[in-house]
Write a sequence for this structure.
């Protein structure tokens, strides 16, 4: 992989400790999930 | 879910005796794996409280030839910051001890789970992906499983693992991130940064190494004193 590459990554995401911890959302995780959802429409195919 | 998929795929129409909570039993029933408390093909060990009576019954099933299978190898699971509960791995360990039979463990880091998740992702993805990456906070399960299944493994430090711990492992994450928040911009732009530029290393001013070399975390294990084991009994 070079300095910066345009790649289509598929993500498998663990939840506990990654998205939330106990009953709290991890800071920035909400925006991360929102960006993933939006990427369906914005990324070139 | 995964255990039921595994049995339906590898041994359709088998029977099982289940130790564990309702969800597992439902998933098995949905895949036409019938319950059998006398002579099942498998004893399936899952999560949750189990009585001595049920353990004895499972023991007898294994004695009669049932194969021992557990949904995951975790000995304990976190309940809160300073509380845990026993996991499927410890229930399975009981039966391994009593029957002398080895259990087969599904769940992370078992490769079947990662391969299946990768297959499912490929089936449902809207376009073909160049690479599949597992994002997790645990070295032994998330990162080990990813590496062994040929996936990328991104470790986040927002959970159970601290940066200093990474150097102790043979297998290494392909990237280390403070949290998934570090990926938001990359997803928005579609531009994946070089793995050695992991944001976690920005503040420490650590920049060295070539891609392909053992991970940048090597520097962590150099001068770290480790407690010695007891010299004698």
């Amino acid at each position: 992989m070079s300095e910066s590459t345009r790649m289509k990554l598929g993500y498998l995401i663990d939840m506990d400790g990654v998205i939330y911890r106990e009953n709290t959302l991890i800071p920035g995780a909400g925006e991360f999930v929102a960006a993933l959802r939006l990427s369906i429409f914005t990324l070139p195919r | 879910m995964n255990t039921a998929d595994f049995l339906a795929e590898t041994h359709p129409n088998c029977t099982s005796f289940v130790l564990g909570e309702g969800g597992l039993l439902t998933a098995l029933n949905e895949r036409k794996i019938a319950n059998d408390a006398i002579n099942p093909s498998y004893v399936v060990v899952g999560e949750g409280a189990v009585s001595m009576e049920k353990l004895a019954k499972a023991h007898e099933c294994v004695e009669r030839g049932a194969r021992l299978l557990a949904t995951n190898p975790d000995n304990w699971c976190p309940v809160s910051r300073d509380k845990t509960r026993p996991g499927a791995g410890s229930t399975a360990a009981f039966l391994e001890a009593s029957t002398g039979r080895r259990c087969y463990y599904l769940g992370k880091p078992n490769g079947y789970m990662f391969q299946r998740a990768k297959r499912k992702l490929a089936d449902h993805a809207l376009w073909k992906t160049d690479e599949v990456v597992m994002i997790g906070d645990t070295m032994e399960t998330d990162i080990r499983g990813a590496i062994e299944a040929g996936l990328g493994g991104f470790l986040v430090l927002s959970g159970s693992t601290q940066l200093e711990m990474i150097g102790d492992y043979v297998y290494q994450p392909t990237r280390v991130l403070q949290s998934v928040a570090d990926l938001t911009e990359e997803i928005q732009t579609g531009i994946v940064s070089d793995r050695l530029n992991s944001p976690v290393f920005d503040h420490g001013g650590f920049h060295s190494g070539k891609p392909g070399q053992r991970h940048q975390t090597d520097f962590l294990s150099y001068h770290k004193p480790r407690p010695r084991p007891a010299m004698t009994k």
Residues 202-213 of chain B have pLDDT under 50 and may be disordered. Chain B touches chain A at residues 78, 80-81, 114, 117-118, 121-122, 125-138, 142, 146, 151-152, 156, 158-160, 179-181, 183-184, 187-188, 190-195, 211 (CB under 8 Å).
